[in-house]
Design goal:
This protein has 91 residues and is mainly alpha-helical. It has a domain of 37 residues. The longest helix has 22 residues. The chain is elongated, with a radius of gyration of 21 Å.
Length: 91
């Protein structure tokens, strides 16, 4: 019974993921500049963290999301491997 719940939850998650990807307006709309331009009278930032953030969340958003899923799966797998059996009723 537990395996059926896992399969149903996985399919629901994948359906929500594909639905959100299909309604996202990829490449439509007004193009935003990929660099930070400060307002008049403000100095330029000394680090490029703003540029990195803009590229991660614009150009590399899909690989960023895939990496997040892979790291989440690795974390869940590490917890599963490291858990103690006596907590779950084993001997």
């Amino acid at each position: 019974m537990v395996k059926y719940k896992i399969v149903i939850l996985t399919l629901a998650f994948l359906a929500a993921l594909f639905a959100s990807l299909s309604v996202t307006p990829w490449g439509q709309g007004e193009k935003q500049p990929l660099s930070f331009q400060p307002k008049e009278g403000m100095r330029l930032p000394e680090s490029g963290i703003g540029d990195v953030g803009m590229e991660i969340f614009t150009l590399y958003v899909f690989p960023f999301e895939i990496l997040a899923l892979v790291l989440t799966a690795a974390l869940v797998g590490a917890i599963y491997v490291a858990r103690k059996d006596d907590i779950l009723g084993g001997s």
